[in-house]
Design brief:
The chain is an alpha/beta fold. Helix content is 27%, strand content 27%.
């Protein structure tokens, strides 16, 4: 077996993976993720018990039990660069023998559910909706560094979105887990999520810095390919879906819609919307 080098897989002196500072027994096979580190405890406060807690930078991990189910809740921070670190190290915990630095013959597929906030880019998806991402499109360059297999439909959407937006690279389109969507999101709206590499300019906002692509969000709003349209935008889902496929994990992104960019409405009770999503996930997972 090929041994992974000490510079490719960095371990801490206690044998834990570098950024997450975890060892395999610290996590369960089902993981709920959030961006905000403070939201981890808001979820695990509902647990029957919490058996483990760890914090390193923006990565906070709690493992415990909810209604007899072993669950792990982890925060990632914002952006697909953080998701790249998070998923690679999470996968190493279950699919690499850390003592020998070799890949295990029998692979473990984790169930990973993102509970996130998002903005709607279509007028018929109102503030307060709960939306499951069937597909995500990454408008960042993360997949320029990985060999991602896409379906014919995904590849076509990628190429046509590049043409529509004029970007110098093809966005990557990739679907999430049907299995998790059927289990957790059967009564939620279904949509396709645009993952942007920033909150301001890449999402069409203008403060003081001049935006080079001022019509970008309008282009995304109007894009159609057969029955495909982009419904909402945020900063992580495409990274989750692409790396989930590359590493063999079931991944689903669930979005609490807190804003509508078309109607320019923002939720008056954002915390209640997120709490509703959290409770639904905990009861169904």
């Amino acid at each position: 077996m090929t041994k992974i080098s000490e510079t490719d897989l960095i371990l801490n002196p206690d044998g834990s993976v570098y950024h997450l500072q975890l060892v395999p027994e610290n996590i369960s096979d089902t993981i709920i993720t959030v961006g905000d580190p403070e939201r981890v405890e808001k979820i695990t406060n509902r647990f029957d018990r919490v058996d483990f807690k760890k914090k390193c930078r923006e990565f906070v991990t709690h493992r415990g039990v909810y209604k007899g189910k072993e669950l792990t809740v982890m925060s990632t921070g914002m952006g697909t660069d953080n998701i790249e670190i998070f998923l690679n190290e999470l996968d190493a915990l279950v699919n690499v023998d850390l003592s020998t630095r070799t890949v295990k013959e029998q692979k473990t597929s984790l169930n990973i559910v993102r509970i996130g906030t998002s903005g709607s880019m279509q007028s018929d998806i109102p503030v307060g909706s709960l939306l499951a991402s069937e597909m995500a499109v990454g408008f960042d360059t993360l997949m320029c560094y990985y060999d991602l297999d896409q379906t014919i439909e995904e590849s076509s959407i990628s190429k046509n979105l590049q043409s529509a937006t004029g970007l110098p690279f093809a966005p990557y389109a990739v679907a999430g887990s049907n299995l998790l969507r059927d289990k957790l999101a059967y009564d939620m709206l279904k949509g396709n999520t645009a993952t942007c590499p920033g909150f301001y300019g890449p999402q069409g906002r203008t403060l003081r810095a001049k935006n080079r692509m001022s019509g970008f969000m309008d282009t995304l709003n109007e894009f159609r390919q057969a029955d495909f349209r982009l419904t909402n935008f945020e900063m992580e889902t495409a990274g989750y879906y692409a790396l989930g496929r590359l590493l063999g994990h079931e991944v689903l992104s669930l979005n609490a819609i807190l804003a509508n960019r078309v109607t320019q409405e923002f939720a008056k009770d954002p915390g209640d919307i997120v709490d509703d999503l959290i409770q639904k996930v905990l009861n169904r997972i």
